[in-house]
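Just scan this pair:

***
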Amino acid sequence: MSRHYNKPFSPEEKLKILNLSQHARIDDVALRYHCTVQSIYRWRRQYDGTIESLFNKSSRPLSPHPRAQTADEIKNISNLIRRNPDIGLNELYGKLRSKHSYVRDPVTLYRFLCRIGYYSVKKRKKPKYVPKPYDTPEQIGVKMQIDVKVVPCECYTGEYSDMRFYQYTAIDEATRERFIYPYREQYSGSSVDFLKRAIAYFGYVPDIVQTDNGQEFTYTLFPKKKEKHAFDIACDKFKIKHKLIRPRTPRHNGKVERSHRNDNERFYVKLKFYSYADLFKQMKSYLKRSNNIPSSVLSSRDKLRKWLTPKEKRKELLLLDWGVVE
């Protein structure tokens, strides 16, 4: 039985412990339920045959704390507040110190005023983020999101523990179909190679590719670099518009970011690989599996079929938009 040590036992738990202590050693019972032997003896003395006798009593001390505000101090504070309803903390503390020989710290006075309700302490709530309307393309090949995920180090069981591997991910916004590929390095060369592989995998060139502002995709955050990024050169070659999201705002690339969270839950939580070739093999198998998992956001255009897989959505859009049957 696992429990929090600072959480009091309920009357039902106490009764269960007492019944068990009648047939077993008290030391073993206390060890099993994470309590002390003295507590069990104390509950025995309290128990009169009714469960009400095992209710937890108030833990409030019977005598005031030796350093608590005295009656005279409380009276002086109350009188000053009554005569000066709008008095501030500094002014109140000054009058107490000069007229009534108040020697406590001003923080102590502030805490006492909060406790009696003079100051209403309100927690500042962060305003809830309300996402702006996002126009998700309904046609295949309009927009694609690309991002990079670091493969968890715990999954690698090879010889060199300091090796790093990276998962490049591309997702078509209309179909949610993905393409993933592992790399040993996260740099512009890997990004260009991945773009070419993604185009070959999907079988079409997207109109727009959306990425974050990482150095593997752009030099936007590095103004000293005057040359054009290799990824932008590759996009120009394929006549693709390279769109960048706002810096430090990953939610703008939400579809690919959410797919990475799914990867953690479905793939990396149980993944063990010993080499790059082994990672490539397992990732290729997982890619086929992930593109055949139904999604609640995918439905046919006539809304008659819901929970489509990315592969099923791709077939529908290819037939409707391009007249192609796979």
